[in-house]
Amino acid sequence: MTTRIFGSGIKRREDPRLITGEALYTDDIKLPGVLHMAVVRSPYAHANIVSIDSAAAEAMEGVVAVYTSDDIGDGLAGLPTAWLIPDSDLKTPEHPALAKGKVRYVGDGVAIVLADDRYRAQDAADAVVVEYEELPAVIDPEEAAQEGAPLIHDDVEGNIAFRWAPFDKEASDKVFADADVVVSERILQQRLLPTAMEPRSAMAQYNAATAELTLWCTSQNPHIHRFIISAVTGLNENKVRVIAPEVGGGFGSKIPCYPDEALVSWAAIKLGVPVKWTETRSENYLITIHGRDHVQHVDMAASSDGKILGVRATVYAGMGGYLSTAAPGIPTILHGLLYVGPYTIDSVYCESIGVMTNGTPTDAYRGAGRPEATFLLERMVDNVAREIGMDPAEVRRKNLIPAFEDGYEVAAGLSYDSGDYPAAFEKALGMAGYGDFRRQQKSAMAEGRHLGIGVTAYTEMCGLGPSQVAGAVGFQGGLWESATVRVTPTGKVQALIGASPHGQGSETTLAQIIADELGFPVDDIEVIHGDTTETPMGWGTYGSRTTPVTGAALAVASQKLKEKARVLAAHLMEANVDDIEYADGSFSVKGSPDQAQSIQDVALMAHLAWNMPEGMDPGFEESQFYDPPNFVYPFGTHIAIVEVDAETGEIELQRYIAVDDCGPQINPEIVAGQIHGGVVQGVAQALCEGAVYDENGQLLTGTMMDYCMPKADMFPNFELGETVTPSPHHPIGVKGVGETGTIASTPTVYNAVLDALAPLGVKQLDMPLTSAKVWSAIQDANGGGS
Amino acid sequence: MQVAITVNGVVHERDVDPRTLLVHFLREELDLTGTKIGCDTSQCGACTVHLDGKVLKSCTLLAVQADGAQVTTIEGLAENGNHHPMQTAFWENHGLQCGYCTPGMIMASAAFTRDNPGASEDEIRHYLEGNICRCTGYHNIVKAVKQVADAAAGA
Question: Which CATH architecture best describes the domain B2-76?
């Protein structure tokens, strides 16, 4: 009996090239004669451009050209916003590749320099003299929405880019008016810097003879990049080839099409030589999208015995200086629709106001809208618990949606696919020893030690998503995926996918799906991605969708191939198709096991086509477009145990327990890795990460020296558990798991710290919970000041 | 300026701009792109190499300062075509995802376990403070390094 490859934590097929340094990321690719582009960037958050003098820069050694917006003229169209949420009076201000007359955030591009060397290009960029007339700037989204705030775009009145409020306000107001208990909190979802370890990079090459542009870039979705680069350059889409080579993480920040990709493309066309640009980390922090940036006013209504009756929020979501590619969809569709979470909450209301500010544009960052929703829910559940004097775990238990296998409609309008929230919840509480902990906590307090526990129950929507829904919510694309399973005559497999993994291990996971369906050894399967010329159309890797959506396309394509193989095998063995049995990559005739055709034999015969059944075409290859009928809804419960040192404000994360249910796990080691990484990102939001601007709109956390990236010594080993609830609508039952860790962990750790601080009189703190902030709060609560 | 730097056992003589960082020398001049750049303030450790056997962030040194030195990069870590035990441990323990921090992580960890056989998990976590990973949450990196540290202590 062979071990089933599906469910096996095999080593990753990606790793040999990565552990040896042989993998080629965008900046590792060299082209002869390449010019390096450096961008002259605004040092002001908001200013009029008075003049640009590039004479000195142009005279410098190695400099080929300096261009401004005037030089580009109509050579590049503005960068489009591609999520046009409906019924929100959405404004989409122009986003030129280089600023025209005005800059709107620190880092906004003003000119580009092309030189023969990256040092010289940067020197020359520093020598471009730009005269600015500084304007007042505004960073806080709630302030930017107030009357009298500096106006950032003339055509976006009051800086309000959209106002989205699709729920019944009157009904919500009534629930709150009638409730025993209403708790309220102003929650800051601070700006975060995604910080994929590989900075963004782009290199373009134009062949004038064929009028073809090739763009290598750090992209999570090369087909979307092709679409947008075609639109902004005016080149036909079939003359644009976008290649995402090895990509070093994205977390959402490599979804958008940025000015930089458009600029290298334009310059390569203009100059007829290849042009490359790679951002520095400091540049990355200024110009690559930021995440979160919500000011939320949240209320939760409950009965005095702990039944949650309603949740409502007004959200000011900072968009930054321009509307990035998917930005409007994040604090709306991906946020407000999740306000029920895993609970039986019958009333939800969300008004989300997208506000232009003088910060870096924001967009999807790991979890994208759902962490912000989960945090506010979980924070308010703890507030309800405190208000009514009930244990927070008990309040959750009381409100969890009971197990369901095939569809559950919630008040926010979604239909969850499947879930057994109580099972995951009880399992996590058991792993944590919740009851024992509460006793330990009491005895620790008697010794003057402050322990805290935080519990988060969550579900989330991922595996984006049905295309019809995408259309209904204004997403300017489909959300299906396509894949081809191509078997060579010698029985080796090339799987071509339109999605574009960049660290998720999908080359392994997806190969395991094919191996499981067709019986090829996993080492005989190559998953090919990241090149618009080599791969079929796909919408990209984000929203925890590659395993659920591309995985489904591959599973169905493999099943079609298996059916063809069965018919051909029957024909070759002169047997009836109904008598063919399949096991482990081999077709045999029922009752005569000595007669068999391996999948490789069949693949060869399909290619040779010497002896095909009537009506069967030659070849051994199948493609599948797969449009999911619904999102998938992974869920689980996370628990954190912390100790706060009241003398110093330092927080020690002592234990972290995560029970997640993403359906059947294809590769449990890869699933665990996604959870580990996600948890660290989410915990870091609670404890240390946060982009800080000064009142002039200068980013104070502009380098890794100032922005607190989580380090290895901040964490214990994680304790993971799982439950397995298949998705009823998915061909192999799987759900996404790329974002669950980030979604669940921020409130888990936050609530644990506040639980520890409660006896000290501290009830609320803004994230991140730095030791200085915690210490000051303890001092203030004790009346000592700080 | 003329430099002669031995990288992965091969002497490279070059005329370099005096301000060239060692990491750029490796990547641009020698095409050894396995050494990565993840920041510009010497925090991330993606550019970690060995210089005369010691761990070094190659963005902190000018190429001219490495004149006459022996440099080992990720490309030179394997011996006789066999992965270094740290490379194997990272692979076996799923100690990487996007792979971008991995060369630096492996170079730093390989020197650490060589010098600190039997290092504890706490010591490993503390040591790895100089190398940042955004994908793995460090859990499996620590596991990989511990595996090699334990094996080194047992040898």
Answer: Roll (3.10)
Do residues A270 and A335 share a domain? no
- pLDDT surpasses 80 at A437: yes
Please indicate, yes or no, whether residues A424 and A331 belong to a single structural domain of this protein: yes
B126 contacts on A by Cβ (under 8 Å): 712-713
**Nearest CB to B96 within list A18, A703, A709:** A18
> Does B83 sit within 8 Å of A20, measured CB to CB?
yes
- For residues B28 and A30, the answer to whether their CB atoms sit within 8 Å is no
**Mutation choice for B interface testing from A25, A195, A197, A674 by most B CBs within 10 A:** A197
Q: Which ranges in chain B are annotated with CATH 1.10.150.120?
A: 85-154
Q: Is residue A150 situated within a structural domain?
A: no
pLDDT-derived band of residue A785, with 50, 70 and 90 as boundaries?
very low
Residues A351 and A204 in one domain: no
Considering the domain architecture, whether residues A622 and A711 belong to the same structural domain is answered as: no
- B141 and chain A: CB distance < 8 Å anywhere? yes
The ranges of chain B annotated as CATH 3.10.20.30 are 2-76
Confidence of residue A783 (pLDDT cuts 50, 70, 90): confident
Distances (CA, A) of A776 to A137, A292, A383, A456, A755: 29, 25, 22, 27, 17
Q: Give dist(CA A516, CA A383) in Å, integer.
A: 47
- Pair A743, A458: CB distance under 8 Å: yes
Q: Is the pLDDT of residue A356 over 60?
A: yes
A475 inside domain: no
- pLDDT of A2 reads 59
**Is B39 within 8 Å of A703 when comparing Cβ atoms?**
yes
Model confidence pLDDT, tens digit, residues A567-587: 999 999 999 999 999 999 999
Per-residue confidence band for A483, with pLDDT thresholds at 50, 70 and 90:
very high
How are strands ordered across the β-sheet holding A450-459?
Answer: A450-459, A635-644, A651-661, A719-722
- Same domain? For A565 and A636 the reply is no
Total domains in chain A come to 3
pLDDT tens-digit series, residues B25-66: 999 999 999 999 999 999 999 999 999 999 999 999 999 999
| Residues A319 and A456 grouped into a single domain | yes
Residue B25 Cα, gap to closest chain A Cα (Å): 12
The domain of A277 spans 17-135+197-249+254-287
**What residues in A contact B135, CB-CB < 8 Å?**
197, 249, 503, 673, 677
pLDDT per residue as tens digits for the range A148-181? 999 999 999 999 999 999 999 999 999 999 999 9
Q: What is the pLDDT of residues A298-314, one digit of tens each?
A: 999 999 999 999 999 99
33-92 of B, contacting A, C-beta below 8 A: 33-41, 43-44, 46, 73-75, 77-78, 83, 87, 90-92
Average pLDDT, chain A: 97
Q: Are residues A341 and A383 in the same domain?
A: yes
- Mark yes or no for CB contact A27/B102 under 8 Å: no
The pLDDT assigned to A632 comes to 98
CATH number of the domain at B85-154, please?
A: 1.10.150.120
Distance (Å, rounded) from C-alpha A504 to C-alpha A14?
10
CATH number at residue A613: 3.30.365.10
pLDDT at residue A782, rounded to an integer: 86
Whether A638 is covered by a domain: the verdict is yes
Does a structural domain hold residue A160? Answer: no
Q: Which helix (H) or strand (E) holds A672?
A: helix A668-687
Nearest to A195 among B35, B87, B134 (CB): B134
| Cβ proximity of A638 and A748 under 8 Å | yes
Domain boundary residue among A626, A660, A689? A626
Decide if B102 and A18 are in contact by the 8 Å CB cutoff: yes
Q: What is the spatial distance between Cα A368 and Cα A294, in angstroms, rounded to a whole number?
A: 12
Q: Tell me the CATH number at A274.
A: 3.90.1170.50
Alpha-carbon distance A548 to A546, whole Å? 6
CA distance A46 to chain B (A): 26
> What is the rounded distance in angstroms from the CA atom of residue A272 to the CA atom of residue A478?
34
- What's the CA gap between B149 and B127, in Å, rounded? 13
- Identify whether residues A575 and A504 lie together within a single domain: yes
Number of Cβ pairs < 8 A linking chain A and chain B: 180
